[in-house]
């Protein structure tokens, strides 16, 4: 599997998201959650490990999100509150589509070259 170089990930200031009591923080969190779409890839820290996973399902009220990793058996089901906590602590970031495609191409080329 291809490792993600966390130093290359886009960064977003998390201070705003972590100020839970402020109206601005609540609005920013809602905007972020509302922007989630099936098919988008993320790098997230769950249960002591970094995972690269794609959104496979979002509940109608956006209270639950199912992520599927590069290994289809890797499934991560998260509540909205868990996602908000990850975001507030800088433990989730969206991966740009180009980087996902580039990683897939790199993996394919590596496989074709024999490793």
From TrEMBL:
This is Uncharacterized protein. The lineage of its organism: Eukaryota, Cryptophyceae, Cryptomonadales, Hemiselmidaceae, Hemiselmis. It comes from the Eukaryota. It comes from Hemiselmis andersenii (Cryptophyte alga). Pfam families: DUF1631 (PF07793).
């Amino acid at each position: 599997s291809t490792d993600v170089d966390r130093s290359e990930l886009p960064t977003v200031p998390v201070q705003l998201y972590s100020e839970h009591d402020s109206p601005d923080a609540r609005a920013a969190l809602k905007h972020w959650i509302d922007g989630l779409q099936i098919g988008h890839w993320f790098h997230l820290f769950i249960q002591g490990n970094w995972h690269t996973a794609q959104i496979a399902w979002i509940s109608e009220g956006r209270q639950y999100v199912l992520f599927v990793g590069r290994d289809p058996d890797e499934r991560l089901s998260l509540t909205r509150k868990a996602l908000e906590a990850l975001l507030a602590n800088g433990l989730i970031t969206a991966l740009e589509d180009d980087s996902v495609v580039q990683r897939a191409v790199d993996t394919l080329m590596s496989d074709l070259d024999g490793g």
